[in-house]
Design brief:
7-stranded mixed beta sheet, PyrdxlP-dep_Trfase_major, 36% helix, transaminase activity, Aspartate Aminotransferase, domain 2, 4-stranded mixed beta sheet, PLP-dependent transferase, binds pyridoxal-5'-phosphate
């Protein structure tokens, strides 16, 4: 069957119309097994999701046990709770990391972003400052695909069709993208100072009493390619947020839950933590759709002193089955020291990438942390010249990799202001030396 015939016949509206997708019939550790028996190494775990690989009998068992012995569905808007939801929140928050003390579980990262924004707005409402509804995000950022999440995402091409829906109560500052934006001879300190000043200026331009929050990925994932900030950046951002009481919202949907070698990526930034944090992907390790929002105690204090409830909710919020699967995944990660393993294997991955791929004339930058790495491609290494817009270089890398049995997530270069052709290399925490090679 030709691609056109397949696309026309399938009742699924696939995300691309130009390629016929191969059918996956099973997962086996890091591998995907296709209908024709071919094995493909899933080097990016989808978009950095399946952090325990594709087959984890203990998680499968937890899911079936839960369905047999417990409740499949509880409506979070009813006067009921359930054991799985409570236990997952306990696992994440018993130690109150950075003062985070309450959780909301939703289905997708985009919903988590929406919930985070709405919580911030409600927080200011309850605090008697209802005019604080403006958010500052960063250019080239991605926080999700719902309209709310897209409003605070600076990624131009994802916003393109929906400009008419984009809120005017959002503005953007530069990301901490040292590879392209740090001037020659500029120190990290001076670069941080420049970005911090731009952020402070933006708060002052909008008016501090109008700014609800600043949203950023702690380590930028798909749009800028596993990009950690330069040292001191988040410290400076946290200080400015504190100065103007702007809420710091850290999006760790892709970079959190152990990916970078610590449970939360912000732990490596020398800050006390965010006021609101989003998590997803590795939370349920891909066995179930699950994301979440973690709130600082101060947010809860304001909400509970206010109108007496949460002005936000979904039908499938805090789904017990999803929480049961995530509990099993998180217990395995803890029991098997997999976050430390992601650090150790991450060092090996970095060394391999730098040795085997780094010298290639089209490889401009290799960056990341833990088991969360990206390779940025350029036309000219010395000049850092990006590929022409629409050259789709990355798509070719992805296609050729697939022919070699390697599934890798590539991001199309053109994001508006910069050309960022990159692939994501983020294998599961259980990856072996042989698989890394
Ligand atoms: N935030 C970040 C940083 C992401 O990488 C993503 C997805 O890739 C999202 C939010 C949106 O998550 P979802 O696709 O689960 O809605």
């Amino acid at each position: 069957m030709s691609t056109d015939e397949f696309v026309a016949r399938s009742h699924i509206l696939h995300r691309t119309f130009s390629e016929r997708p191969s059918k996956i019939v099973k997962g086996d550790g890091i591998s995907l097994i296709l209908e024709n028996g071919k094995r493909v190494i899933d080097a990016s775990c989808g978009p950095s999701v399946s952090c325990l690989g594709h087959s984890q009998p203990e998680v499968f068992e937890a899911i079936t046990n839960h369905l047999r012995d417990d409740i499949a569905y509880v409506y979070s808007g009813s006067p009921y709770t359930n054991a799985a939801t409570e236990e997952l929140a306990d696992i994440l928050l018993a130690d109150k990391p950075g003062g985070l003390s309450k959780a909301i579980f939703v289905n997708s990262g985009s919903e988590a972003t929406d919930a985070a924004l709405k919580l911030a707005v409600q927080y200011w409402h309850e605090r008697g400052q209802p005019k604080r509804t403006h958010f500052i995000g960063r250019k080239q950022s991605y926080h999700g695909n719902t309209i709310g999440a897209l409003c605070v995402s600076g990624h131009e091409s994802r916003r393109e069709f929906y400009q008419d829906f984009m809120s005017s109560n959002v503005s953007f500052v530069d990301p901490c993208y040292a590879y392209r934006m740090k001037n020659a001879n500029e120190s990290d300190e001076a670069f941080v100072q420049r970005l911090a000043q731009q952020f402070e200026n933006e708060i002052l331009r909008v008016g501090p009493n109008r700014v609800a929050g600043f949203i950023a990925e702690t380590v930028s994932g798909t749009t800028l390619g596993c990009l950690p900030a330069v040292p001191g950046y988040f410290k400076a951002i946290r200080e400015i947020c504190d100065k103007y009481e702007v809420l710091l919202i850290l999006d760790e949907i892709i970079c959190g839950m152990g990916k970078t070698g610590t449970m939360h990526a912000w732990e490596q930034e020398g800050i006390r933590g965010p006021d609101i944090q989003t998590i997803g992907k590795a939370l349920g390790a891909g066995f179930v759709p699950l994301s979440g929002v973690l709130l600082h105690q101060k947010i809860f204090d304001a909400l509970s002193a206010g109108s007496g409830g949460l002005a936000h909710g979904h039908t499938f919020q805090a789904h017990p089955l999803a929480c049961a699967a995530a509990i099993a995944a998180q217990k395995i990660i803890k029991r098997d020291n997999l976050i430390e393993r992601s650090r150790i294997m991450g060092d090996k991955l970095e060394a391999l990438l730098r040795k085997e791929i780094g010298p290639h004339p089209l490889v401009g930058d290799i960056r990341g942390r833990g088991l969360f790495w990206a390779v940025e491609f350029v036309l000219d290494k010395d000049m850092k010249t990006p590929f022409p817009i629409n050259a789709n270089f990355c798509s070719q890398v992805v296609k050729n990799s697939l022919n070699l049995g390697l599934n890798i997530l590539g991001n199309l270069g053109h994001t508006g202001e910069y050309q960022v052709d990159h692939i994501l290399v983020c294998p599961p925490y259980t990856v072996t030396d042989g698989e890394l090679e």
